Amino acid sequence: MSIEIRTGDFEAFFQAPFEAYEGQSYVSPLKADLKRFVSPAENPLFDGADDIAIFTAHRDDKPIGRITAHVHRASNDAHGLNTAYFGYFDCADDAEAARALLTAAEEWAKARGFDTLVGNFNLTAMQMIGVQTGGFDHPAYSDCMAGPPHLPRLLEANGFKPFFPMSTYDIDLADWDRRAGPARTLPTDLTFAPITRRTLAARLDDARQVLNESFSDNPMFVPVSKAEYDFQAKDLKWVMDMRLSAVVHSEGKPVGALIAIPDLNPLLKRIGSQLSLSTPIHYMHHRLTNRRMVVVYYGVLPAWRGRGLTLIMLDHVLRAALKAGYRQAGGTWISEENIASLRQKEKLGARTLQSLHLFRKSL
Question: For residue 119, what are the β-bridge partners?
């Protein structure tokens, strides 16, 4: 039976990867989160309903693939681009389904006058990006893109070319501790701001300000508005372990930040990424047994660089993580162009896990 493409079927959009990767390891974002992420009415990233479309590929009425086509207008404005994006590209190893999905995304972009289609972006460069191209034997951490080996092949078969190489990493905390030496301390004119449930909202806004200033020169970066950041971090207070993050203040103002969370992928896999009456029990079990954390991002304001603050924050958080019982620390993508971050990874004794690329096609 031939492939049918449907538009706007969220239930199929959520279910498609489970059907496409049956028998393979796959972890989905929480269904409720995914729904609000791709909703133009809820997500402040989008200016209106015409900024995103979701497509699913069906064979014999079963969803076996999905993709978004969307625009990040702030990115195009900031970088002088005329680009549309695809995201959440998941597909069975089915050439016809992949071609139909990618064609749907291309036609969406062409109809709106865009000249290039780039992905995966789920949904911006400040979130999960890329298509996994290596390291398939390692389980991914939360906030890290993962996919089967056939996805790059399907993209290239449809005229998409890989570019912008990236990698993810992790650290064996016991090994790091053996080599770390004495604890690094802050200069006397700086302090670690308290992170508690009461102060979390303020600390997260501190971290947003640091993100915007410290990443301003990075490729593809676009400042994150408070509305966008709060939307992404909406439920963070329920899953954060306050010991795993750090915000550095100078005279009450943020100058550095490191945000990390427990790895939630084992929990999401156990509950099928859907909330139910048994979810609290699974969550408590996960909190008691989880030994993995993931560093989402860290940064230091340009004026404060050169004082070792990044390594001090990492030292502070990794020591707290070890004390709390964590044994592995993962990290989200680092561009191969980001020499400073790659050197920091080497200093920490981190190993490379997955390799990723963006894929691009001129329309």
Answer: 86, 359
Output phi, psi for 256, to 5 deg: -155, 150
| Number of residues assigned to the chain | 363
Classify domain 173-354 at the CATH superfamily level: Gcn5-related N-acetyltransferase (GNAT) (3.40.630.30)
Q: What residue has token string 């909330």?
A: 275
pLDDT tens digits in sequence order for the chain, 363 residues long: 699 999 999 999 999 999 999 878 789 999 999 999 999 999 999 999 999 999 999 999 999 999 999 999 999 999 999 999 999 999 999 999 999 999 999 999 999 999 999 999 998 877 899 999 999 998 899 999 999 999 999 999 999 999 999 999 999 999 999 999 999 999 999 999 999 989 999 999 999 999 999 998 888 899 999 999 999 887 777 789 999 999 999 999 999 999 999 999 999 999 999 999 999 999 999 999 999 999 999 999 999 999 999 999 999 999 999 999 999 999 999 999 988 889 889 989 999 999 999 999 999
Q: Are 104 and 86 in contact (CB under 8 A)?
A: no
CB 173 within 8 A of CB 327: yes
Which among 303, 288, 125, 289 has a CA at the least distance from the CA of 219? 125
* DSSP helix/strand/coil, 69: strand
Sequence-separated (6 or more) residues with CB below 8 Å from residue 218: 335, 338
All residues at 6 or more sequence positions from 200 whose CB lies less than 8 Å from its CB, including other chains: 236, 237, 240, 242
Q: Is 72 helix (H, G, I), strand (E, B) or coil?
A: coil
Q: Where in 21-159 does DSSP place strands (E)? A: 52-59, 62-70, 83-91, 116-119, 121-122, 128-129, 131-134
Query: Rg of the chain's alpha carbons, rounded to an integer?
Result: 20
Correct CATH for 4-124 of 3.40.50.300, 3.40.630.30, 3.90.190.20, 3.10.290.10: 3.40.630.30
Find, among 216, 232, 210, the residue nearest to 123 by Cα: 232
In the chain, CATH 3.40.630.30 sits at 4-124, 173-354
- Looking at the DSSP assignment, which residues form a beta bridge with residue 55? 7, 67
pTM passes above 0.90: yes
